[in-house]
Amino acid sequence: MSNPPNFAQAVDLSSLGKPKPNLSGPTPGIEVSTANLTTELLPLSKTKPVILLCWSARSAESVEMLTVMAGLENSYQGTWALGHVDIDAQPQVAQALQTQKIPYAVALINEQIVPLFEQAYPEAQIRLVLDKVLTLAAEQGVGDAPVEIIEPEEEEAVAALESGDLSTAEAAYKKLLARKPSDSFAKLGLAQTQLLIRTDGLLLDLVIKEATQNPSDLALQLKAADMEIVNGGVEAAFSRLLHVVKETTGDDRNKAKEHLLSLFALVDPADPRLTAARSALANALF
Q1: In this model, does residue 8 exceed pLDDT 80?
Q2: Rounded CA gap, 169 and 160, in Å?
Q3: What is the Cα–Cα distance from 9 to 11, expressed in whole angstroms?
Q4: Cα(272)–Cα(255) distance, rounded to whole angstroms?
Q5: What Cα–Cα distance (Å) separates residue 132 from each residue in 77, 107, 123, 218?
Q6: Helices (H), strands (E): how many in the chain?
Q7: pTM of this prediction?
Q8: Mean pLDDT lowest for which of 100-114, 136-150, 167-181?
Q9: Residues 70, 72, 73, 74: what is their CA dihedral angle, to the nearest 10 degrees?
Q10: Among 28, 97, 113, 115, which lies 20 to 30 A Cα-Cα from 231?
């Protein structure tokens, strides 16, 4: 693979502020430099996917994301490799990867760059992205597709969902989380199931009409956003709750924000609608 354009240009780091304490202990993953990007990591990407995370000690969010990625690399048992790009120490690499903001992640698959995400996300969503990377890599003859391991409680939940028994599915996911509190798929499954429970038996047109006629009724706005997202109206749901966040204060604003964040967790991290909504929420809050 040839180097991306502008490899020799530096990244503007002025917006990150003054340096903060670095990670405690060794930095996880392979340290990426202009030298080993082409001599070590690109060749490695022909045998397994390589995930490069651009970060800085000046960004607490990116430091936390690096820690999450290190834990995920361990849990995936060597099926992909983690490389870390310290944009302060390696601005040329950051520029080569077209880094705009951090944390920023790309995958190297068979010497090709695949952009992944450019901000922090919950572990459950990152796992979904990683599984897609492994599947894509396997289709190109690099590594193996992810092997799905289904817990007995998850099997119970899926069977209950297929039969329309939402309460049993919810209970099954809760049992799994009681046994494995950090299980990201169980968290996502529970969130999806609870969304279905909240919207069960509701009619989209009727809920939207009521919410439109009562714009100051927070409960109706939350219900309408649920109905919109469960019916595929991702942008409509996000826009509705962003408007509530902008127009309210105190407890109502916090409830709208938390509900919006819960809906964020249900959307693919690579979805540009999610990226836009996260930026809009940050602007609304700060």
Answers
A1: no
A2: 5
A3: 7
A4: 24
A5: 16, 11, 14, 37
A6: 13, 5
A7: 0.60
A8: 136-150
A9: 90
A10: 115
What mean pLDDT is predicted for residues 4-14?
32
The 10s digit of each residue's pLDDT in 146-169 is 877 788 999 999 999 999 999 999
Count of alpha carbons within 13 Å of 165, Cβ hemisphere only? 11
Which of 8, 4, 5 has the alpha carbon at shortest distance from 92? Answer: 8
Given a contact cutoff of 8 angstroms between Cβ atoms, the answer to whether 131 and 75 are in contact is no
In the chain the domains, ranked by start, together with CATH numbers, are 14-129 (3.40.30.10), 152-199 (no CATH), 204-285 (1.25.40)
* pLDDT of res. 89: 94
Kindly tell me if the per-residue pLDDT of 11 is higher than 50.
no
Q: Residue 131: which of 72, 183, 91, 82 has the closest Cα?
A: 72
Backbone angles phi, psi at 70, to 5 degrees: -65, -40
Rounded CA Rg of the chain: 21
- Contact criterion met (CB below 8 Å) for 272 and 120: no
